[in-house]
Amino acid sequence: MTVAMEKPEKTGAVEEPAAPARAERRISRPMVVAAILVVWLVLFLVLRGKQTLTLAAADLTDLHRWFNDVNDSIGANRNSNPLFLYFFNEIRLVIDSLVTFVQELISQPAAGRPVPQIGWLGVVGIVGYVSWAVGNWRVALLAVAGFTFLGLQGLWQESMDTLALTVSAVFVALLFAIPLGVWAGLSDRVNRIVTPFLDFMQTMPTFVYLAPLTLFFLIGPASATIATLIYAAPPAIRITAHAIRSVPTTTVEAADSMGATRRQTLTKVLLPMSKRTVVMGVNQTIMAALAMVTIAALIDAPGLGKTVVQALQSLDVGTAFNAGLAIVVMAIVLDRVTTAASGRAEEARRSKNRFLAWRRPLLGVGAAAAAVLVFLSHTYVWAAEFPGEGGIGSAISSGADSVTTWAQDNLGGLTNAIRDVVTNALLNPFQTLLTDSPWWLVGAALIALGVVVGGLRAGITTAVCVGLLVGTGVWSDSMTTLASTVVATVLVMLFGIGFGVWMGRSALVDRLIRPTLDAAQVMPPFVYLVPFLALFGATRFTAIVAAVVYAAPVAMKIIADGVRNVPATTVEAATSAGCNTWQIITKVQLPMARSALTLATNQGLIYVLSMVVVGGLVGAGALGYDVVAGFSQGQLYGKGLAAGLAIVLLGVMFDRITQAAARRAGA
Q1: Residue 284 CA from chain centroid, whole number
Q2: Could you give the CA distance from residue 298 to residue 224 in angstroms, rounded to a whole number?
Q3: What span, in angstroms and rounded, lies between the C-alpha atoms of 70 and 68?
Q4: Span 357-369, mean pLDDT?
Q5: What is the DSSP letter of 28?
Q6: Which of left, alpha, beta for 437 (phi over 0: left; psi -120 to 50: alpha)?
Q7: Which run of H or of E encompasses 80?
Q8: How far apart are CA 17 and CA 475, in angstroms?
Q9: 22-55 burial, b for 16+ CB within 10 Å, e for fewer?
Q10: What integer best gives the mean pLDDT of the chain?
C-alpha cells in the first residue's frame, strides 16, 4: 500500500509543471497571419462586390480634375510666373543646352552640317581609347565591337541619342552626387538626413519620376534628362558615403597625427583609398541612367527607348527585339568599361606583365590615333555616316519575327497552358479577393498584416498608405497592380529559394550561374518585355513573367549568400546527427538564413513592382496603363499623376513592411 500511495504522488509531481508550460505557449506569427486571412475570406464571401471604389477607365475624381486644372494653370502661366521664369525654366534651359550640345557632338546634325561634329568612326575611336585607358585591351576590343555592332544593326543615330542623354544625365548627377556622398561619409548628421531620402528614391519605380517632372519641365529631352539624373544619383551618393566610411579609422588617425589638415586627409587619404568603391558607384549610376533613359521615351526622349516603345505598342516583336538587343549591347559595354576601371589599379599591381612599362607611351600613341579618327569623321562623310543600311538589324528583326511565329504556332499550347494555370489558379482568385472586397476590409487586412509581420511602425505606415491610396481615386487599379505584384513575388521567391540554395551549397554551381545573373541585372526593364510578348502576347501574364525574370536574379544572389554564410560547423553538426540533405536545408540552413530570405523578399517586391508597372505597355493594365494614358491623353493627365502617386504608396508600404520584417528576422 505504501508503494501504491507513493506512485501517484511521484506521478503528480512530474505531471504538474506540464500544465503551465502548455499555458505559456505563445501563438506563432504564421498562425496569426492565417487567422487574419481566414477572417478576410469569410467577410469577403459575405460582402463581395460592396464598396469596392471601382472607377471606369475614362472616369475622373475631383482629385484628378484638380491635377488637370493645376497642369492647365501651370501651362498658361509658365512664361509669366517668376518661379518658372527664374527657376524651372532656367534649369530646363541649362539641361536642354547640355543635351543639345552632346547630341550635336555625336548624334544629331550640327548647325550648318548634315552630320554631327564627330561621326561614327570618331566615336568608335574615342570609345576604344577610353576603354583601354581606364580598363584594358580586352575591354577596349569589346567596346569597339559593341559600338560597331550598333551601327550594323541600323541603329547608330538612335544609339547615340541614348548615349547622349545618358552621358548628360550622369555628368550632372555626379557633379552633386559625389560631393554629397563625400559629405555624408564625413558627417554622421548629414548621413542620417540623406539616408531616408535615398531609401525613398530607390524604392520608387522608374515610371513615377516622369509625370511630376513633366508638370514642371514639359516633355522632351530636357525633362527626360532631369528625370534620369534624379533617378541615377542615389547609388552614387550612397556608395560614395559608404566608401568614405569604410576607410580604416587607424589610417585617418595616422594622417591626423602627422599634422594633415581635413582637406589634406580627404584628398590624400580618404578619396584615394575609396577610389575603387566610388568608381563602382559611378558604374551603378550609369546603369540606372541607361535604364531610365529608355523608359523616358514615354515623355518623348529620343533614342532606342522610343523605338522599343513604339514597337511594343504596335506589337512589332522584331523591331522591339532589335532595338532591345542594342540597349543590351550598350549596357554590357558601359558596365564592363566601368567595372574594369574600378579594378584596373589593383590588377596592374598584381600583374607581372613586362608590357606595363610601355603602357604610358602606348596610351600616347592611342590618343593620337583616336584624334586622327575624330578628324576623319569630322571631315569626311564616309567616316561620319555609318556605312550600309543596317542589314544585320533587318536580319535580326526578320529572325525574331520568324521565331515568334514559330513559337506561337508550335508552343502556343504549352505557353497558353502555363498562362492559364497561373492566371486562373493564382492571379484571378487573388485579384478578385482584392478588387471585390470592400475597400475598408482590404485596408484593415493589410494594416493587420503589416503589424503582425513588420511591427507597430510598419502597421502605422501601412495605415497611412492605405488612406492615401483611397484618396488617389485609383483604389481598384491599385489592388489589381498589388495582385500582380504579390503573385509575381511568390514566383520570384520560389525560384530564388530553389536556385539560391543550390548556389549556396555548391561553389561550382555558383560560379556557373552567377555570371548569368550579373548579366541579367545589367539589362534595362524594357528589354525583358520583348521575348515574353512574343511567347504570351499582350496580357497581364506577360508582365508577370517579365517581372519574375527581372527580379529573380537579385533574390537568388541574396539567398545564396545567406545560405553560404551559415556556419559550416552548424551544418557539420547536423550531418553528424544523422540529418539528410533535405533536413539540413529546411531545418538548419533556411531557418538560419531567414534574414536573407526576408531581404530577398524586400528586393524582389521592389523589382517586381517596377516591372509590373512597366508592363502596362503590353497589356498589364491597372496603374501602369493609367500612367501611360496620362502622357498620351491630356484629359487623363490628372489620373495618370494620381496613379504615379499610388505606385509610390505601394512601394513604400512594401518596403517598410519587409524591411521591418528583415530587422526582426536578423534580431
Answers
A1: 11
A2: 9
A3: 5
A4: 78
A5: P
A6: beta
A7: none
A8: 53
A9: eeeeeeeeeeeeeebeeebeeebeeeeeeebbeb
A10: 84
Task: State pLDDT tens for residues 396-441.
Answer: 988 888 888 888 788 778 888 888 888 888 889 999 999 999 999 9
Q: DSSP for 291-338, please give it.
A: HHHHHGGGGT--SHHHHHHHHHHTT-HHHHHHHHHHHHHHHHHHHHHH
C-alpha cell at 658: 519587409
Residue 383 parent element (H or E): helix 381-384
Query: What pLDDT, in 10s, does the model give residues 88-111?
Result: 888 888 999 999 999 999 988 887
102 Cβ neighbours under 8 A, 6+ residues apart:
164, 167, 168
Tell me how far CA of residue 552 lies from CA of 202, 226, 500, 581, in angstroms. Answer: 18, 30, 10, 24
The DSSP element (H or E) to which 353 belongs, if any, is none
Q: Around Cβ 195, how many Cβ atoms within 10 Å?
A: 14
Q: How many helices (DSSP H) and strands (DSSP E) are in the chain?
A: 35, 0
Q: Copy the grid coordinates of residue 246.
A: 569604410
Contact by Cβ (8 Å): 332, 150: no
- 372-405 per-residue burial string, b: 16 or more CB within 10 A, e: under 16: ebbebbbeeeebbbbeeebeebeebbeebbebbe
Q: Coil, strand, or helix at residue 468?
A: helix
8 A C-beta contact, residue 390 and residue 125: no
Query: CA 492, CA 496: separation in Å to the nearest integer?
Result: 6
* DSSP-derived 3-state class of residue 26: coil
Cβ-Cβ contacts under 8 Å for 664 (sequence gap 6 or more)? 454, 455, 598
Contacts 24+ apart (CB under 8 A), 273-276: 273/247, 274/185, 274/240, 274/243, 274/244, 274/246, 274/247, 275/345, 276/342, 276/343, 276/345, 276/346
Angle at alpha carbon of residue 427, lines to 426 and 433, rounded to 5°: 95
DSSP state of 583: H
**How far is the C-alpha of 164 from the C-alpha of 172, rounded, in Å?**
12
Task: Please give the Cα distance from 542 to 544 (Å, whole number).
Answer: 5
110, 310, 346, 453, 588 from 30: Cα distances, Å: 65, 46, 49, 9, 19
Tell me which H or E stretch contains 207.
Answer: none
What is the full DSSP assignment across 145-157? Answer: HHHHHHHHTT-HH
CB 217 within 8 A of CB 87: no
Q: What angle do CA 286, 657, 436 make, to 5 degrees?
A: 105
pLDDT per residue as tens digits for the range 290-326: 888 888 888 888 888 888 888 877 778 888 889 888 9
539 versus 642: the higher-pLDDT residue is 642
SS3 362: helix
CB 401 within 8 A of CB 531: no
0.70 exceeded by the pTM? yes
